[in-house]
Amino acid sequence: MKKLLSKTLLLVLPFLFMQNVHAASATIAVSSSANQIIVGNNVVVYVTISSASPLGSWEYTLNYDNSVFKLVSSDVDLHYASYASNDNTKSVTYKYTFTALRSGSSKFYIDSSAVIGWDESYYSTTDGSKVVSAITYAEYQASLSTNNNLDRIEIDGYEITPEFDKDTLEYSVKVNEDETLINVAAYAEDYRATVTGDGEIEVSAGNNVVNIVVIAQNGSEKTYKLTIEVIDKDPIEVKIDNKNYTVVKIASNLTKPKSYVEKTITIDEKEIPAFYSEITEYTLVGLKDEKGEIGLYIYEDGKYTKYIELSFGNITIYPLPMNEKMNNYQKYNIKIQKNDIECLATNSSSRYKLIYGMNVETKEKGLFIYDSKDNTIMKYDADSFAVINDKLKKVTYVAIAFGVTTFVSLITLIIASSKKKGNKKIEKVDNKPKEKDKNKEVEAKEEQEEVYDIFADDHKKKKKKK
Prior knowledge:
The protein is of the alpha+beta class. It has helices spanning 6-19, 137-143, 382-430, 435-448, and strands at residues 24-32, 36-38, 42-51, 55-63, 69-74, 79-83, 91-100, 104-117, 122-127, 129-135, 150-155, 170-175, 181-188, 194-196, 199-202, 206-215, 221-230, 237-240, 243-247, 261-267, 270-276, 283-288, 294-300, 303-306, 310-312, 315-319, 330-336, 339-345, 352-359, 365-371, 376-379, 450-453, 461-464.
């Protein structure tokens, strides 16, 4: 088939139009990567020529408001004509990239279009258009929704109190003691806002606090607090250090620690889930505080002691009270894995600390060296620890020696500089011209100068200056 270029196409079209040959149709569509952009940003506009029948050649012009947008790059020219290389072409797309110059909108539209099929028949065309707007960042921010209200909170099978109001931020609900999962559904008042914190919530006996956060389109947040109280009809209450706790009765609310096995024990004639270790010989139960937080406690003869595990790779220790004493060491409290732990150290800023505890896998008790920088731990050995301290002392001595040497060098440099300045002043005095030599220079200069005597006669006469 003879390939039709732009000029040929323009010559052929009128003839085809007169013959009213409309064998097929084509569409020249216009689309964009965004409907609205910020001034200074780019938008991509696509022109797509398509037909159900094979395309032969085509021509079009893409128009737009150049006071709002500026063309920065494109696949082809705004006015473009081309042809197909084979009879399988039914769609082609070209890309134009524009940047927004100012606020406003522009219609990107096609005119001067023509499409001929592979069979050289004239195609009727439908020309498309696309409107893209540009706004400043301030206008964009002002256009965003600030609505961060909830429309309602729903809980399957239960009613919250008080009755929901978007301006009331705290609610509560009571559920049965056998409930472990509660489905909370929260709906935003504005469909453009985002809600987090709702969904399927794990609960245990006592109060369970759920924070539902609503994020408006502009990023502003509002938090609704929902307290889910799992009713324990017959709670086992415990008081430790003037704080109230309740014993956890549901096993799924507890996490089994390493080297322990599950079991049940009897407290106040009730079956309670617990964990036991043959190594430590500890029995652990769960206690829940007034905030709804659950922790493990060693239970022995009706007494409860907080259970803490510090895990460092292959070593897990249970810290014990620091009753050890060592020369030149003081007792401090430090934070390790969010726990307050007693330790011994030469000073509060020392990198290495001594912790007294028990290895929960070997039951071995003793001191452990804790490296606060690397968060590692190793069994204490007096000789090894002495080597570490010796190295630290050597580093300290080297630092002190370096400081002293630097200070002495600085003082020496200052003294030498002062002496050099003094010598320069003496040389300046020695090189000062003598008084007699100075007078001779003045006299010689005066002899060479001439002045006018304006009082001698009508004419100015020269004479030597005395």
